[in-house]
Amino acid sequence: MIYFIGDKPSKKNVDRNVAFVGTRSYKTLLDWIYRMNLSINKICLFNHAGFINTTLKHVNEHDAIIALGNEASNALTKENVPHLKIPHPSGLNRVLNDKKTVDKFLRHCKDYIGEYNAS
After folding, report:
1. Largest CA distance in the chain
2. For residues 63 and 1, is the Cβ–Cβ distance under 8 A?
3. d(C-alpha 33, C-alpha 14), whole Å
4. Residue in 24, 18, 23 with CA at minimum distance from that of residue 3
5. pLDDT of residue 101
6. How far apart are alpha carbons 14 and 73 in whole angstroms?
7. Spatial CA neighbour of 103 closest among 117, 86, 90
8. How confident is the model at residue 38 (pLDDT cuts 50, 70, 90)?
9. CA angle at residue 39 from 6 to 54, to 5 degrees?
10. 112 vs 12, 48, 69, 91, 108, CA distance in Å?
11. CA–CA distance, 39 with 45 (Å, rounded to integer)
12. Residue 63: pLDDT above 60?
């Protein structure tokens, strides 16, 4: 599985059990998943509190964990959870205005995921 971990639910999140659904960040994240050619059937979306409290115990060494932004990464680091940090898909994140930067971290993310799926 590939876990994408966010910070906390948006007020626009339509499903409290699945992070991002109904938000603009969700559309961006789906675009990234498509661009990395990842199977949507292997994707799980969580906010860090839900992931750490309910799902972390079911993660195995073949699962890739991707933190979306600093807050999610900090929470995972605090719990000693190995992960890759990429920028948060929020439209307010100005890093996303640079196409080359986005392409670069998506390539790095796909490589990171590939390392886990190759195991």
Report:
1. 38
2. yes
3. 20
4. 18
5. 96
6. 23
7. 86
8. very high
9. 40
10. 30, 20, 16, 24, 6
11. 13
12. yes
Q: Which of 2-6, 55-59, 84-88, 96-100 has the lowest mean pLDDT?
A: 55-59
Task: Report which of 42, 48, 41, 4 is spatially closest to residue 26, judged by C-alpha positions.
Answer: 4
HEC per residue, the chain: CEEEEECCCCCCCCCCCCCCCCCHHHHHHHHHHHHCCCCHHHEEEEEHHHHHHHHHHHCCCCCEEEEECHHHHHHHHHCCCCCEEECCCCCCCHHHHCHHHHHHHHHHHHHHHHHHHCC
Q: Is pTM, for the whole model, over 0.85?
A: yes
Q: Which of 81, 52, 86, 50 is nearest to 67 (CA)?
A: 86
What is the per-residue pLDDT for 117? 67
Strand 64-68 and strand 84-86: the pairing is parallel
* Cα–Cα nearest to 35, from 86, 92, 94, 93: 86
